[in-house]
What we know:
With 135 residues, the chain is mainly beta. It contains 1 helix and 11 strands; from the N terminus they run αβββββββββββ.
Amino acid sequence: MKTLMTTLLACAVLATPALAQSVTPKFEHMITNIPGKSLIAVEVNFPPGEPSAPHYHAKSAFLYVYVLQGAIESQLEGEAAHVYRAGDSFFEPPGAHHVLGRNASATEPAKLLAVFVVDSNDKALTVFDKEGHKQ
């Protein structure tokens, strides 16, 4: 399982545009009563005003997001943008195109916990759009 996490993080680092946000693994475990599925949690830190490039997550990934600190502005394709503050949560269904994600504050850091329920053999948790085109 540690090898899977190392592979996933390497893919995320290689696919990540040069942004100052950081991603830290927090938890990974196979879901023993759902064969082929894993639960993976990562902490994402956003410096003040920092955006995330448009992206998709693994096609099998159901994503639950909990804002730990600050405020995050988020938008999925076809939906309105929304600001989530510390203590708020939201989800992204499998295949969703995340077109906007950023720290809503120009002066305070923001932090979130992203929890993935994903096929255990998926290699990349996050795939960023190439040159602004949908994938």
